[in-house]
């Protein structure tokens, strides 16, 4: 469950929407602490608290992204294994069908064709006529 949650968070962090939200958040923070009412400013100019908040966000985001990548790697490994097994089955089926086609060609080369049979029967009839005459 935690892995799925981390993947959802990591996916969100990697979107343009998140970048827009973070940009708006930082801009509002800076504007408020520069131009807001003097008695309501809570993080004066070097914005140390903002830096701390962004560092905290980054310290949580990095492990969540790595966890999501590890889970994706596991899924990719399983998918690769399934693809490899399917490719092996397909290769075995192709080899089997190739042998069957080769066997059919050999069998068909031994089968008498209609034209060949007509030709031979025609020669046989001609030979019988010559013997009768």
UniProtKB/TrEMBL annotation:
* Keyword terms: Coiled coil, Membrane, Transmembrane, Transmembrane helix
Residues crossing the lipid bilayer are: 12-35, 47-68
- One short Pfam family name for this protein? DUF1003
What highest taxon heads this organism's lineage? Answer: Bacteria
Q: Which residues form a coiled coil?
A: 70-107
InterPro entries, per the entry: DUF1003 (IPR010406)
Which PANTHER family does this chain map to?
Answer: INTEGRAL MEMBRANE PROTEIN-RELATED, MEMBRANE PROTEIN
User: Per its record, how is this protein called by name?
Assistant: DUF1003 domain-containing protein
Q: Which organism is it from?
A: Nonomuraea aridisoli
Query: What are the top taxonomic ranks of the organism?
Result: Bacteria, Bacillati, Actinomycetota, Actinomycetes, Streptosporangiales
